[in-house]
Amino acid sequence: MSEQSNSNGSGYIIECQDVNKWFGEFHVLKDINMKVKEREVVVVIGPSGSGKSTLIRCINRLEEHQEGKILVDGIELSNDLKNINAIRRETGMVFQSFNLFPHLTVMQNITLAQRYVRRRPRRDAEDMARQLLQRVGIPEQANKYPGQLSGGQQQRVAIARALAMQPKIMLFDEPTSALDPEMIKEVLDVMKELARSGMTMLVVTHEMGFAREVADRVIFMDSGRIVEIGTPEHFFENPSHERTKLFLSQIL
Amino acid sequence: MTAKYSRTDDFFVNTADLSARRPPPRPQNTAVQILQLPAVIVASYLVYIGGTIFFWNLLNDFPTVLAILVKILASKVGIHLDSLDAFLDIFIVNIANVVEAGWLGFLVAFPYIIYSMANGLLVQWRTDIPIYRNIVFLSNITQSVFLFAVIVGLYTLMLNVKDNTQIPINWNVVSRRFSVEVSEGPDFNTELTWLKDIPLVGDSLADAAILRPGTATRALMTGVINTLRAVLLALVFSTLLGIFVGIGLLSNNWLVRNLSTIYVEIFRNTPLLVQLFFIFRGLLGVLPTSPRDAYKFGDFYLSGRGLNFPKVLTTDTYPYFLVSIIIGLVVGVFLWRWRLKVQDETGKPANTLAWFSLAFLGLGAIGLGLAFALGGSPFKLDYPVLDRFNFSGGSRWSSGYLTLVVGLTLYTGAFIADIVRAGIQSVSYGQIEAARAHGLTSNQTLRLVVLPQAMRLIVPPLTNQYLNLSKNSSLAIAIGFYDLYNVATVVQNQTGQAVALFAILMGTYLVISLLISLLMNMVNRSLRLKTR
Amino acid sequence: MSEVYHRPDETFYVAPKEPPPSRRPPALTIGPVGWLRKNLFSSVSNTLITVITVGLMAAFFYELVTWSVAKAEWNVVNNTMRLMMVGLYPVDQIWRIELIAILLVFLSGLGLGVWGGNARGFFIIALMIIIAALFIPIGAEKIEPPPIRFLITPTDAIGPVVFVGDKDDTVRLSVEPIDDNAIANETSPFVGFIENSPGSSSSRALWNNAKAQVVAGTLDLTNYNLQLTVQLLDRSGKVLDEQLSTPTRRRVNFEFKLPADGWYYVQVLRDETSEAIYETVDGVQLPIAPARTLPNTGYAWIRIDGVDTMSSQVADVEQRTKTYGEVPAIQCPSAAECRRLLLEENTRFEGARSFSAFLKTQLDPFLQEIIVSLVVGFAVMLAAYSIGNFAKQSRNPSSKKAVSRVTIIGWIIFFPLSWILLSGFKDPDSVHPFLRLPEVAQSLWGGLILTIVLTFVSLTVAFPIGILLALGRRSKLPIISIFCILFIEVVRGVPLITILFMAKFIVPYFAKSMSDTELLIRLLVGLTLFTAAYNAEIIRGGLQIIPKGQIEASQALGLNPFATNAFIVLPQALRAVIPAMMSQSVSLFKDTTLVSIVGLFEFLGMIELIVNGQQIYRPYQREAYLFVGVIYFIISYIMSSLSRRLEESGAGTVRKMRKA
Fold it and tell me: I want to staple A204 with a disulfide (CB 3.0 to 4.6 A). Which of A52, A107, A154, B447 is the partner?
């Protein structure tokens, strides 16, 4: 349901071309070139400070890149208000710290953006919300407040909230890093189901198991540069770059 | 510099140097871009000036023309505006001011508007982003419109004020002579002879018109000094009282604790003005006003006029005493540091305070003895002596001054007490337990563990209370004490220059507030926890 | 198995089957003794502090209580109650203010019921106060009225004393001679109401004169020979009873019984001719030879008991006229000897008042004035609280929602409604007959109601302005944020009084059409801007604690900045700063006193006017300011307790997200 259809026929739904970003003097993204196809699941891994979160946040304009071009579904990310809004409608984001609105119930959290951005009537929005809650496995929590839910449940609500906008792409910024080990599984299960259903996903995570199981490609970033892009099999069994080898030896 | 793809677009290994960095692109800020478009700026001004000149007559007649148009249109519709002529007169005067302010607003905001439009258009030409959707353009235009509105608003008000005040605004009010009795503080009708002693600028300062005796500036200076006298004293006392009561709020003596709470609740919940009136009219006001009937405590006389007490004057032998005190101070500081070193190296208790006091007081006593030996006491007291109607000699704190200091102390002290309590309570009990477990005494725990941490929480709200205290001192006008605000009001009554005086008044208070904030910020910064 | 457990110092040990019974702690550590030991006497220094503090406090409270009861003159409060509460509002329109007060109490009760916690304690205390306030006047009725005194000197007699009385009341009159000791005494020898006709013929002036003469030695009080005729007259001047006092240096008492309800005079005549007097010689009373007769002279107190001092309150005067008729005209024996007791202004309490006199003459009138409003207010608040509480606890969530909606709407329309009620319409006839409220000029508003109006209007109008300023201060657009920062810092850096003065003098210059603005409006503008700046800082604090992630999440969802602020940021921020806002409101309530300096007569200003403007009340500054202080204290204390309760119930924190 996007306003602007994919204008170039290359089939890539996210494209980054020579993207560079600075925070003041600090060069945080260096010459990023990457492409994501539709229905693809791409996992971005790397040590902290490597710029993975920044990259993902640049894609839906939570951060501004200074050089280079980012195209989402053929729409270029620029100072054009219309483009920014369109891109934000196409992408859904799930944050590390959930960022649910604590003063609204779960139902209200999910329906808020639907009603005010997509202009859906309340009934339809609530129906969609119930469907999504069912999908993520917690339909009985609809009228509770986020503070009453466990961390895993909150993150699943966050996923449902993002899905309610029916985006084409889902961006995940370390979705399980703030969860207790018991709850990581339930969130990962939802993400796996999402991947299986054909959603384009760009996931920044430390969960290597997830990457191995579900990813189509793995991007390894370090110090702001993309070091290696490969398939999970290749990446985990037989990495090419020295830096990749070093990193994997430290975490596996 | 593009990265090298070693395989397809989908998979790749980066063989370039991973650590190289590039400097950021040139900052895209406003100032630089304005400099980038000087031609646009110059052109815009030419257009503006040219247009103004060309249409000058039209602009001048614009308000009248507008009024006539409105009248004609209204009469066509059937409304007769003759009765509204008076209204329109006022309206027209104000419209003229609005228009004039509008031109000023344009003058200032025009370049910014032109720059935003030019930038937006350039971007549109280059990259297809329509100007009305360009978020950079939108934010620039919002700011420039806001700037325009603010300038128009403020300037219109200023022009209206200028039109409507009967007495023309004259900023020379500060050098006009005027006469009023300000019964305390430094006399502003005398020459400031010490000005000449200032090197370099002394002579020109001494001749300055605004510093001559009897001018409004001198009166205002007297007012400032009065304010500072009250504020500084009240600051010190209220802090002491606040600390004392704050500790009392946490005492394990039920009586002390509850009495402190009662004190804090009463003085926080009643308005300061009521307290001042009660003290001034109810307590000091019922004292006999005639000096003859004043209450006598030794050489202190308390009457309805105030507190008369002996003034301390210095004699010829004072310098000896002063020098020995200073030497005592210096020696004391050295002893302090030496004792700390001794404690570091040998572990013996430092007793810094004892040694410091020994040095200071000892040398002071020597100095005193020296002074006596050489010619008598270094101080002499000027006792207040009862004349027929009044006291002569001695110094006097007027009842207004007493009221202000006592009232401010009690009022602010209550707030400070609560702040101190909150600060001390914020130190988690585990800290105290750990300290006691290590064998530190109660006193040491308080001094070394609790207070340093509590201070961090206490200082910011304490700053706030100090600022409030300095602002509350302006209530002196209600009790007749000639602080800055009262003097300014008096000057304004005499000279009618409300605008100028209020500007000076508000400026002075802002400066005082700023000084207090800066000082307390320095204290705050020195208390900051060092984190990673 | 009785020896199962060994002594505890052995290496191996098995406990008995049953644990030993619990014992109570040692007697000296529990109960009131234990409490005392722990709290007051736990250590030497503590004991010392306790002793000193108790001593100081006892002395202080003793002084305070004896002053309030025995010496303070609280009539300044009783007589001027209406002025203090509503200022110069026209008397016949006061019902409008009463209506506003009832609405306010009702809405407060509703709010308390719906959102407040358990307010039972508050109502119980209020109920106890009201019961006390009801019983004291009843008890006071039974108390004997305090005596009234006049001074008789050789040259001054008293004229008729007018009073009202009921059938079978007993009026006692006594003549108390004064001797050297009494007059030379420093302290006031008399207790009771002293008639205080103005000028040199007042009892106090005569007393001071005599005292001065005795001290100077020019007056000898041993010549005592007062022969007085005491008469009781009815309102037409007919003598009902007459008694004679003989010259003795001891007190002489007379009693009169009133035959019916109505006005009466008591008249004391000096008999100019003197009869022979007696002197005691060797225990035998002998008449003194006419050559040695002394003139009818002496100093004595005439004391009248059983007569109420009369109130000068309008309502009481009306009641009195209705019951007993108009004040009769006085016939004086001669113009110079005519001093009459009529109005309460003519009497002043001297000396140390007894507690019963305090109850009857000070507390009783005060309570009678306020008891009706207390009872009505309490009933209304209780009713509203019950409604609110009932709705809160009912199972039906929509009823709770309905009641809280009604409350909020009630509060919102309360402010403009009360403004309209207070000010009325300029042209009453043009409005619907039901709403025909004549206009009351704002210059007539005053007293406590004006304080409340100032507080509420400033708070309400400053609220949105404060939000805008706080958001503007955090804006990324530098010009807007600089403007907001400048405005906030300048307004916060100058004293409120300068802003009010500016508002009063400079605002009219802003536009010629504004030069006729009412002072109230001008000061409201100043007060509102001041409050808005302080509110902005408080709201900024609330905005700062909202995690940045919230805003990012709403941006990621595509919400525009306006929606983000309205639905996400502001609800959380405002909820977080409620306690701080409440304490700011208390501050504002106290700061409204400053408008009295610029000429608006709110509560404190009204007191100032009364106590400084009217000569008669000028000596009573302490009582007036104490009363003012107590009222302000009560209201502020209630408001800050409310905010403390709110804070404790968790309203003041951003709703925490439970971490996994």
Answer: A52
Is A165 an 8 Å CB contact of chain C? yes
Q: What is the CA radius of gyration of chain C?
A: 35
Residue A80, SS3?
A: strand
The verdict on a CB contact (< 8 Å) between B146 and C636 is: no
8 Å CB contact between B88 and B67 = yes
Task: From chain C, pick out residues whose CB is under 8 angstroms from the CB of A90.
Answer: none
CATH class of C440-660: mainly alpha
- Extended strands (E) in B167-320: 295-297, 300-303, 306-309, 311-314
Domain ranges of chain C: 3-66, 90-143+353-438, 148-352, 440-660
pTM for the model: 0.79
- Write out the H or E segment, with its range, that includes residue B98: helix B85-127
- Label the pairing between strands A217-222 and B295-297: unpaired
Give which of A166, A210, A168, A217 is closest to A189, Cα–Cα: A210
Enter the ipTM. 0.81
Give the model confidence (pLDDT) of A61-95 as tens digits. 888 888 889 999 888 888 888 888 888 888 899 99
Round to whole Å and give the CA distance between C302 and C291.
29
Within 8 A by CB and 6+ apart from C649, the residues are C117
The interface residues of chain B toward chain C in range 59-118, judged by CB-CB distance below 8 A, are 87, 90, 93-94
Residue A126 host element (H or E): helix A122-136
3-class SS at B522?
A: helix
Residue C84 falls in which region: left (phi positive, over 0), alpha (psi -120 to 50) or beta: alpha
CA end-to-end distance (rounded Å), chain B:
36
Name the DSSP letter for residue C41: S
Instruction: Identify the three-state secondary structure at position C192.
Output: strand
Q: Helix, strand, or coil here: B527?
A: coil
- The chain B residues in contact with chain A (CB within 8 A) are 1-3, 5, 9-14, 16, 18-25, 123, 127, 129-130, 133-138
Widest CA span of chain B, in angstroms?
111
Q: In terms of CA atoms, which chain C residue is nearest residue A61? A: C556
- pLDDT 10s digits, A156-178: 999 999 999 899 999 999 999 98
Q: What is the DSSP letter of C567?
A: I
Residue holding tokens 């400079």?
C506
